[in-house]
């Protein structure tokens, strides 16, 4: 979670990170955030989530100030998002895209192994 928050906060396009915690886990998540050094130029808000991802996203959106014009929804299970990707998504929305789903090329990993030796 901390890596995902730092990834978002590394972007100059992000001024507020709303962390949607498990429904009964907001105090623990807030405590976790308080224990780690996070960028001071970014504000953080922790809200309890819902029973589904969709409900959690809705609750996170409802927690936003009314003047927020661009919203990025990020899954903390993918904490290593490059800051360039965050910047590109925010820029695309500011340039008029109604929604953006980033996709990054993946490098396949191929490993060659020798067959196991069998006794006998």
From TrEMBL:
Q: What are the UniProt keywords, alphabetically? A: Nucleotidyltransferase, Transferase
Q: Which PROSITE patterns match?
A: ISPD
Q: Which GO terms describe its biological process?
A: isoprenoid biosynthetic process
Molecular function as annotated in GO: 2-C-methyl-D-erythritol 4-phosphate cytidylyltransferase activity
Q: Which InterPro entries match?
A: IspD/TarI (IPR034683), IspD/TarI_cytidylyltransf_bact (IPR050088), ISPD_synthase_CS (IPR018294), Nucleotide-diphossugar_trans (IPR029044)
What is the name of the protein in this document?
Answer: 2-C-methyl-D-erythritol 4-phosphate cytidylyltransferase
UniProt organism field: Streptomyces parvus
